[in-house]
Amino acid sequence: MGGTTSMIDSFVGMTRANAVDRLFDTAIPGLPDWGRFDSGDQHWQAQEKMIEWWVDRMITAPPTIDEKLTLFLHSHFATGREKVEDSRLMWDQHMVLRNFGQGSFRALLEKISLGSAMLIYLDNESNKKGAEQENFARELMELHTVGNGRFTEGDVVAMARAWTGHNTIGATRENNWQYDPRYRYNSEEHDHGTKALFGIRKNWNAHDTLDELCSGVKATATSDFFARKVFKFFVHTNPSQAVVDDLAADFRASDLDIKRLVRAVLMHDEFWAVDSRYALVKSPVEYMVDVMRRCGLRSQDDSVRWRMEGMGMTLFDPPTVAGWGQNGFWLSTASAWTKSRFTNNLKWKSDERGILQNLDALNPDQVVNVITTFFSIFDASDRTKEYMRELIVTTREERPWAMAYEPFAVGMFMPEVQCA
């Protein structure tokens, strides 16, 4: 989520392996229970509290992989509170991502797939024999495991039949016809007939399909798809097939151990290559967390949920079943205006806190150095420095009073601050 200069300095002198290991070995304080968010609020209010809690955790967490990896998994297994409605179910899923996110992909896939949030979000709660609902079946393959183009329409039909009966309890007479969102396997609603999935004919059921996706005939496709997606999230968006093949092979050899895959990506030479620097546009949450941490701010100091929403990102409510995209996904006129308002708000807070001030005695080049150092940008391009120098000169000549806060805004809009 970005690091302050002091955080970066704490890694100086480490080997690559020691630095990566530290990201996995750093302990973080325990997680709250649902009671922290549930006080009789509406579900959207509980969601807002959950967002604020997560943002503050990202801001205050020591250097660790936990928050970044959880954010990736939240998008990979996208579900949204707006459709699920029940924020408790979203919180339960979030805890699954945290508790299983560094372990077996197969175990995580099962926990998520049989979780109420996913069953409701992808309509499997109503998937029953004779009234098959194919949405979950399609997205399980296209978005969560093998990827698009690696299954047939016949596989979708067979997968949907295999997942019949894996529903929620729903409305029952026992609870006065109130809706009960808990998972339940109803054998009477399951299609026990023979199904042809991936060219294999048998009486498929949900667990069998997950085994086949992870360790059967689709194991190579699943490991390739997930390894590629992890690489693109952490490194850059155009990995070679050779790189993906190596990562995927090691992922399969580890029995789909997520921690081992992520560690392999972070240890890879391409992660450390010059061309990978600033290859990714930061998502709104990454951008906001990075800047707010540097300023000593917390969620209560700004309307983080509404800022993120204006930039195109609301935690616990991805825009589609595919989650959030990357790079160009975050670039739009609307998001730029919201980011500008966020910057404008923070520059006043920086003025209140005395951040990047008392620069009158420094020449423009020295001011630029102070700004880049504050934002931990030690390799700003000559073009960036020149633009910053011009802005500082213009501000000093035309609006000298703005030197109390304008340098901070200039820093926030550096391309190198916008990217990772």
Could you write a compact summary of the structure shown?
With 420 residues, the protein is mainly alpha-helical. The protein contains 22 helices and four strands.
Structural notes for this entry:
With 420 residues, this protein is mainly α. Among the domains are: 126-139 and 147-210, no CATH class; 284-418, no CATH class. The chain contains 22 helices and four strands. The chain has helices at 5-9, 16-25, 43-60, 66-76, 81-84, 87-100, 105-113, 116-121, 135-142, 153-162, 206-215, 219-234, 241-253, 258-267, 269-272, 284-295, 304-310, 333-353, 364-374, 382-398, 406-412, 415-418, and strands at 166-171, 179-185, 195-197, 200-202. The longest helix is centred in the C-terminal third of the chain and has 21 residues, at 333-353. It is globular, with a radius of gyration of 24 Å. The N and C termini lie close together (9 Å).
Any chance you could write out the topology, listing elements then pairs?
Elements: H1 5-9, H2 16-25, H3 43-60, H4 66-76, H5 81-84, H6 87-100, H7 105-113, H8 116-121, H9 135-142, H10 153-162, E1 166-171, E2 179-185, E3 195-197, E4 200-202, H11 206-215, H12 219-234, H13 241-253, H14 258-267, H15 269-272, H16 284-295, H17 304-310, H18 333-353, H19 364-374, H20 382-398, H21 406-412, H22 415-418
Antiparallel strand pairs: 1-2, 3-4
Helix pairs in contact: 2-14, 3-16, 6-7, 7-11, 9-10, 11-12, 12-13, 12-14, 13-14, 18-21, 19-20, 19-21, 20-21
